[in-house]
Design goal:
Number of domains: 2
Strand content: 25-35%
Length: 502
Amino acid sequence: MRRPAVLLASLGLVLGCGSASPDVVTPSAHSVHALPDPGKADNYYSTNAQEYLLSGVAHVALPEDFAALVGEARDQRLTSLVATRESLVVRTIQDHIKTVVAPKNGEKTGEEAEYFIYVKRDPGTTEAPEVLEDGRARFAFTFELIGHTELIQALSPSGKFSVEVKEWPAPTGETVEVSVRSTPSTDSFPRYDELFRDGSLDIGVHFGGDYNKERHDIETAKWMVETLLENGFKNEAVTSYDTLAIESPAFTRTLVVEGKPVAVNVWVYHSDLVPAEREEELRTVMKESLAKRDIVIYSGHAGEGAGFILDYQPKLELTPAEFATVEMASKYQIFVLDGCRTYRTYVDDLMKNPAKSFDNLNIITTVNTTPFSVGYQVLWEMVFWLTLTDDAGNHFPLSWNALLAGVNTDEFKTVHYGVHGVDNGPKLNPHGGKAACTPCSGDGDCGAGGNLCLGYGGASACGVACTVDAACPEGYKCQAITDDPEQFYLPRQCVNSAGQCR
């Protein structure tokens, strides 16, 4: 469940129920950006959690009657023995990691610990077990966990360590060598070109019900409506939260993408918009968003094995079992699951739907329990920062790491938001634009928003928004152009490695 906390201070802004809406940043299209000194280190932003793969080889003792087994009976017994032993190996490794990082966490434990781990899924052998002549079976194991970005450094800089795996009450056990490595995921952009292709960006915001006396769900929904109206969104039928109905039209505004207008439409739903006898309508509009909308935001209670909890008076839920069969769009979508521990089971359940894969889906989740106050910032990032425009009205694309920077903050070190499916996203500005090193006098000369005009020692030339070096042309590197935290929204640029454009 979610728990109340102090209001989130992020990007110099305090967000919370009843607070004034933050100002919308408007990047200038007429500026020239000075490049850092050639020797200055790149300060590429990373989120505050990392997935790791742990692997090794272990053994399990075979019982005396195993030799008499044949065929399917033998295979089933071997599978069972290995699974039991493998579970013990994983628990032992978990306990070892927690012991090693405990000094870094001080007195904090559980979800309050900055150095945390969570095993993402049950371990699975990577090869068939091998029966040995000494009465044991050998098996290789691999399992995945998520943890602190510096977990390997804390465990062993070499990426290898050993644990003693023993069965109670045996005084000693087997020494197992373990290798740990981070998964190779890198930052990318959301697929803005696909989101905007049909001339509209449709966003469904669904607030789940709340059993707390304070009704944080209502306060957050009110804030959402007020913030939309105060920051450029129009709705002739809705002048305040009190006039919002479940059948209300979308809040709308227009942005420009590659010279063409794109309508941004935001629908807002909340459990109190219908009486108890009509609450099935909450499931109907949730299903409609999953089937049609480009971005679906769920803001509410969550947890392992839970679904979308749409009401508590009485309780109404779109269950995890329904995720596999409910209609979902075959187009590219973004699902934002802003509830506690949505990382842990939601992704696996959603990916059972035959219409979805990481080829057409990004999912934002959080690992641990999240404070209510962080929810305001998540909504701000996914509605306003994702549709950011420069002062010429052009969409200004932010990468996933830039978007996550606003919620993975120092104020809440134990809150870990991340995006799934990031590897399949574009590494270069999905809006295209002028080629790198095209002469310019301002960002507007570089075509699509996000491509910046860079000062190359007396001359100015275009960069191209990027996330990794490999995305840039030969002879260019993907470089951060500022370390000013207030300008985190400025994307890295493909910059000529020689420091000059000819």
